[in-house]
Automatic annotation (TrEMBL):
Top-level taxonomy: Bacteria, Bacillati, Bacillota, Bacilli, Bacillales
Domain LysM: 166-216
Highest taxon, organism lineage: Bacteria
SMART domains reported in the protein's UniProt record: LysM (SM00257)
Protein name from the UniProt record: LysM peptidoglycan-binding domain-containing protein
Amino acid sequence: MEFILINGKGEKFTFPVNPEEVSISRQKGFDTTTILSYGEFDFPQGDKVKEISFASFFPKEFDESFCQGSEQDLPDPQTAMNTLNEFLSLKAPLRFIITETAVNVPVFVSSHQSTFRGGEPGDVYFDITLRTWREMKAAKTAASSSGQSATAVNKKPRVDMKQKNKSYIVKSGDSLSKIAKLELGNSSDWQKIYQMNKKIIGSNPSAIKPGQKLVLP
């Protein structure tokens, strides 16, 4: 069993140590109305957004008795903690999966708390809460042929959870390594740009031309 978060680029973050328990909160929504002289009345609405919460830790050292994957897969605890902080600031939903279960839902990270313990240097403990996301479905009222109003579901296309790639217009004097350095922060990533734009550039990665529109990873 693995606990996985996947971002809009399809990049997987696997929690290295499975939590001992997972809490899934489900609530019924109610619209409360106060009627004069009669008090409050509850009118049931749709289900509220579910919350999924669990706690675990990022170990400094690999231990096959409780760690998932291999030693090479073990993330640095500080890096893993920063990744959760990045997830917390995202405005696009992630996908949360617990393998070998039916849990496979789009979520937002709503809270994340880290703890450092003096007797276990290097390890980072955390609590995380996820809120399930669902696409808003708007309804519009239209007049029917009989003159009466009718409510129809506004069928908008589903929101694409995948993050769209950026593009770059080649300028005079550009090279793939220069573009990779300016746009991606690492000149060695030029090969990624080349692989994504091979049909445009051709067989020679040095033969880019001004005006070409390149897709960036």
